[in-house]
């Protein structure tokens, strides 16, 4: 264990890589959370959708429709957005990151086939054949997709925890063990899972308001029908977001109770306090937005903006607290020399050009797909 650092004590290069890593991981977290909670939503929709007589706005887009439409893209985005934090974490957290990976060995490598399977499973609903297979098979497909992404999330969390617990490495190596379990892993995953619903629903809300729900359904159904459908969808989304945010808070409490003393004291340290307060403030903003949306019963852009601002603050605050805990567990400053050497290597210009070119390409892809969407929205598969 080392003495926790404060920002001013972090060497410039280390601080630079850590800050870049935080921003990159936040982007990855948004996309990965969308996939995780989105596939869970699709699974529940697959099981109960038909029993609910008014699950979707007639003729309009629902949360489920958007998820079925965009999940393959979201999986691609989560995987792509994982690359930058993966590169950065290997630079600023070199020894610990590699050792944890090597110890978990083929369980980590299993991520590749698992992600491939998950990727194709979320594509299946787009095929015509899929709508003709029995409902039970479709539910199994949705469950398998969710399990693939849940395994992926578990694998990253397990690896992270192992990397900040060097004391167990010798024994794991001696016993040739490729699993690592800590009781706080379960609430840690619960924080990620429950915490991602509000983010996912806010993104879907934006997709609905900007995806032309109204224009794409103009003339297809009456405005009264559409309004009634939208109302039930917004009410359901707000309820899910509020309940899962509360569950995420309970998970934070459980994580704290089960965490190691080093992690506990880093969590309540002065260093982490501002980030913790920010994360809580963001959570209050999100809850307020969802409460208002629940009473207004429409995808109001102003409220979506307010809630999204809160979501970004919570995400960045939580990730910063996560870093404070990492700093308290391992000696980042010891790798400062390597960080400075890496920063001197150059390549920043190429990095920035690639960033801009790739961002432009992804934006172009999204616009091209949206232009290509049919005038009538594709529906989440009927479950009869
Ligand atoms: C849809 C698939 C994925 C999901 C659901 C997912 C989920 C997660 C979760 C939940 C975490 C946080 C773990 C924790 O702190 O407890 C995480 C971290 C991370 N993920 Fe992903 N992930 C996915 C794919 C990927 C891929 C393909 C890459 C790499 C190309 C990647 C790179 C990372 C990195 C670098 C971290 C941070 C590791 C660390 O700080 O120790 N992820 N991911």
Taking pLDDT < 50 over at least 5 consecutive residues as the criterion, the unreliable ranges are 1-8, 51-57, 212-220
**Overall number of domains:** 1
In DSSP terms (H or I, runs of 4 or more residues), the helix count works out at 15
Provide the succession of SSEs: HHHHHHHHHHHHHHH
How many strands? 0
Largest sheet: none
The set of bound ligands, ions and cofactors reads: protoporphyrin IX containing FE
- Mean pLDDT over all positions: 88
Query: Which structural class fits the helix and strand makeup?
Result: mainly alpha
Strand content: under 5%
C-alpha-based Rg, rounded: 22 Å
Q: How many angstroms does the end-to-end distance come to? A: 58 Å
Proportion of helical residues: over 70%
Shape: globular
Labels describing this entry:
single chain, 384 residues, mainly alpha, 0% strand, globular, disordered N terminus, binds protoporphyrin IX containing FE
